[in-house]
């Protein structure tokens, strides 16, 4: 069977236009050639791997554009819920459509079960068949072997080939002959070419920084460009925004993308966040969650993914998005999911709005039910139907009416208020504090209020925040204690802080709200606004920027302390990008806040090219406090000062500040900071380069960061190469090649290795 009839060369690959960015094609010409070569070999299986965001699917799709028109292509995108029956149902749906189109015949053989039915279709097809399985890493280990066994069975047929795409593979799982293709990052030159083509002219140090943080991965590069274009930002503005966010680059860029979601579309995104598999357009229309223009907008801007009629939210977005869904809304969505699956269970596969197996639906009902508060119910026995034994079922009209009655649209404001009241009314309920990790908590049952508070504070000092919450909540039940109302606001705020340290934003917000409510009753303006600021900070963390901005403006409209004003302005600047201004006086501003103010003001001046002011305020930040527990920006200020002095030819001063930054980072075990400082010192210090490079390598290994490990190994190889110690140079280049698998431009490392081997052999 011929999968490809024409001869394809590099020139043809670059010319073929199927809507995939030519930059990605140019970067992966050799990979596309390898995929095309696979179709001309007897091998039945190709494994395509690459880190998240390297453009694996797009590269494979470009190769598919050269397939013969006769090839039957069956695609399936895997999820954590996927089992073999789900894949077979998708194939069965495709076979039905292909039969209706006359592309394949209807099997004549009688079959006794569903697997036999699928096999019968494969047997009767007289054309080449290509199976493409994407996101294979998502499948749970318990279900992988059954799926692989089925593909191994199909591979015995010469007319069937399979391509499996995954971020990583456990190659011992594959018992048959297979080929491999690894998709890697954009080469630096191609990355810079892409920036120029998109209108960005700041090629040099800024583009180098962007390349470092995106690692040249197609998704992150493309998303960064789209965000800059959408927000009309220069590369300098974008990198400044990232620097001031104090987040990892992954978190920063994904949060920026999620910020494009408007309130109306939020209902759709909450639904897709909680659903663990894709949903089709028809179902979204029935649920009143479909807006063609908005979905097209989110797909174009890389927030949503669409495969044919199926729409889903990628797992890397879900990790962040699920934290923005309040508990009460999540419960409602889980309940509606259960209702939705129950409308689908009695239906035949091709009558369902969800094309997944009954086994998966039952597991999903169990999963979503875990999040629904339990109520006493009368249990009725039900008969579980086999996959293809027809149960008593509603008519299509009845089924449509049932789905229309299910809602995934909830008004969050009203629901959040209801939950707040519920918490306020139930705080006196005794909290079970018999957690196994607790230290003989039976002893605290009879402790008075003040002793409980002191005990909880000790637990906080030991970072045992969950224990502290339990003890504080126990204290909330002692409303007969004479000191209860004296300490009630303290209990609210301490519980909120503990929840905040546990990243439990929902509960932290609710207890801060209770603290606000208490101080409203006493008329304490400073305290009211202090906790309003804390709530605004939680809104900011959980992507509710508009609500955070509104609350901060309320704080700034009141007569509050200069310290609180400064905190509010700093946070508001992070949300809105407004220009920071220094106050006329700094009296009364805490050192930690003052350090942040000076640092961020210096960064703004640095970005504006006002180097004199930048140096002045970086130094002011350093002078504010040399205690890293007080001054969180101390090390960063020193590093930035070093960069400025190095760029201006003052190497000795740069080394001085890097040494001090390194000392502080070593005290606080900030390995990322140590790595940055030692790599820079290795670059500019004379005589100690090797010492600093070895320290940088140790940090890279502590961080287990492939990009850092590869970079420092290359730097070590370059060091030994310059010193004509070719044996050591070869050793580190080979280590770089090994650590760079799928994560770096291996070609440049191989060039170094080949050059060294030539010299070494001579």
Describe this structure in a few short sentences.
This protein is 60% helix and 5% strand.
List keywords for this structure.
mainly alpha, five-stranded parallel beta sheet, 5% strand, 762 residues, 8 strands, single chain
Describe this structure in words.
The chain is mostly helical and 762 residues long. It contains 36 helices and eight strands.
How do the strands and helices of this protein lay out in sequence?
Blueprint: H1 10-15, H2 22-27, H3 29-38, E1 45-49, H4 56-64, E2 72-77, H5 84-100, H6 114-124, E3 129-134, H7 141-154, E4 160-166, E5 179-182, H8 188-197, H9 205-214, H10 218-231, H11 235-245, H12 249-258, H13 263-274, E6 279-280, H14 281-286, H15 292-300, E7 305-307, E8 310-312, H16 315-321, H17 327-344, H18 358-369, H19 396-404, H20 412-426, H21 449-461, H22 465-476, H23 484-501, H24 505-522, H25 525-541, H26 545-556, H27 562-576, H28 591-608, H29 611-624, H30 634-647, H31 651-667, H32 671-684, H33 689-703, H34 706-722, H35 726-739, H36 746-761
Parallel strand pairs: 1-4, 1-5, 2-3, 3-4
Antiparallel strand pairs: 6-8, 7-8
| Backbone structural class | mainly alpha
Shape: globular
Main beta-sheet strand count, sense and barrel state = 5 strands, parallel
Number of strands: 8
Question: Strand sequence of the main sheet, in spatial order?
Answer: 2-3-4-1-5
Unreliable spans are 375-393, 413-440
| Beta-strand content estimate | under 5%
Terminal residue distance = 50 Å
Helix content: 55-70%
Give the number of helices. Answer: 36
Overall residue-averaged pLDDT value: 83
Radius of gyration: 30 Å
